[in-house]
Amino acid sequence: MKQKKFWKLIFCGVAVLLLSACAKTQTGDASRIYVGISCYDQTDVFIKELVTSFEGELKRNGDNKDISTLVTTRDAADSQRRQNTQVKELIDAGCNVLLVNLVDRTDSSEIIELAKKKKIPVIFFNREPVTEDLKQWNKLYYVGGNAKESGVMQGELAADFIRGNNDVDRNRDGKIQYVVLEGEPGHQDAIIRTEEAVNTLKASGIKLEKLGYGVANWNRSQAQNRMLQLINQYQNKIELVLSNNDDMALGGIDAYAKLNRTESSIPVFFGIDGTDEGLVAVKQGLLAGTVYNDKEGQAKKMADLVMMLETNDNSEKDSRFTQQNYLPYAKITKENVADYQSTSSSSR
Ligand code: BGC
Ligand code: CA
């Protein structure tokens, strides 16, 4: 009888030890965190800067907690199928958390299924999955900006500038002739930014006339080509260029430089992002303004989320995070651009 009791006690003790060991790995008693990233296109300027910023933030978080961090970044080169395969490979390689910059926002189901099966949390960033997909599991997150806000701010910047500078209306017809350089169709930031910018300008009493648009998929050289076509079509009638991002605005500016146009026939340009080169262009007055897509804030949010998921016992209850996390945008002109140039470089 005594012996039986003894063995019972030993058995219970071992069971308790085993259970608590399991609990520890599940709640993440991490000494090393391995993060796998898949980008829709690693040549995208904004994405490159965002990922660099994330790597810095994660390392800083790890150093603060004596946790070593490792990051592997893969390039999906604009193919959702390739991205699905990469995610599988990253999971097989032992990643603890995945950061996914979807190629196709409407096609996240295969990635979600894979991750859920292996219990690997996923932080989607910059390209927002549809809400129903995100709600499939409580370890799926999104970090990005609010597209509507960026469009409104671009419209406000343009309205202020036009009100303060009579010569934007070069032909003095009381209307601003404009063109739009558009990002990728289907991206949450493309159509909304254009609509909101134009509506904000109209609501502030500026009379507008749309001449045309060019889809340039966020890309500088595509934007240069689209702009050359628009200039060819509308000659020096174009007074304002609203671009869905900085890189395309810079491509539009390249087109005027290529044609050796004099300053008096170049329209005013507005971008969005505040990339390193975008900020330089604002400083030089080539871009009249841009809207800061807070890559430092987004990178920090993602890095903090990674730490919370891997080290916090009550991850779902951490009130700093919800499943969808939107960082605010900010307006940048020549007056405040220096503040952003220092933020940008100090976090690298
Ligand atoms: C940025 C673009 C970028 C795109 C990629 C947007 O939020 O403004 O610069 O190319 O995201 O998904
Ligand atoms: Ca005009």
TrEMBL record:
SUPFAM superfamilies: Periplasmic binding protein-like I (SSF53822). It comes from the Bacteria. CDD domains: PBP1_GGBP. The keyword Metal-binding applies. PANTHER family: D-ALLOSE-BINDING PERIPLASMIC PROTEIN-RELATED. It comes from Lapidilactobacillus mulanensis. The ABC transporter complex is composed of one ATP-binding protein (MglA), two transmembrane proteins (MglC) and a solute-binding protein (MglB). Belongs to the bacterial solute-binding protein 2 family. This is D-galactose/methyl-galactoside binding periplasmic protein MglB. The keyword Signal applies. Coiled coil: none annotated. PROSITE patterns: PROKAR_LIPOPROTEIN (PS51257). Keywords: Metal-binding, Signal. It is found in: Cell envelope. Residues 35-309 form the Periplasmic binding protein domain.
